Amino acid sequence: MHRPPGGGRHEWLASGARRGYTGVVPETSAYQLAIELARIAHDNKAEGVVVLDLRGISSVTDFTVIATGTSDRQIRAVADRAAEYGTRIGERPYGVSGYENARWILVDFVNVVFHVFTKAYRDYYDLELLWGDAPRLDWARSESA
Hints:
Beta Polymerase, domain 2; 5 strands; about 35% helix
């Protein structure tokens, strides 16, 4: 396992506190990307869209977006729209996994990880339970927008 210079695992995990993480969601580019990816998933008819704030909890990413698609075609389309949006704003995905079988596609933007699952895979892997202590963020557009 790769560790950053100057500390062990616990120091690495606590680095969120040293960076000044207070639990208040600032308008960061990663935050804005996560919110927009959730909206893209919703606009493309994905179900059960959730944004989890993992800052101070995970050393791997700051936010994760989770959505469910109803067919392999829809799951690919949602992942494609997410990757296209990221590329358009200068946040080209670091990697995409699972595209061929389209049961769980992961689009990795590093600070934001975007997951689109079939219902069966989402229920089985249950990332919301894994990150149960992570705050859920409101991503819905306001009615006046």
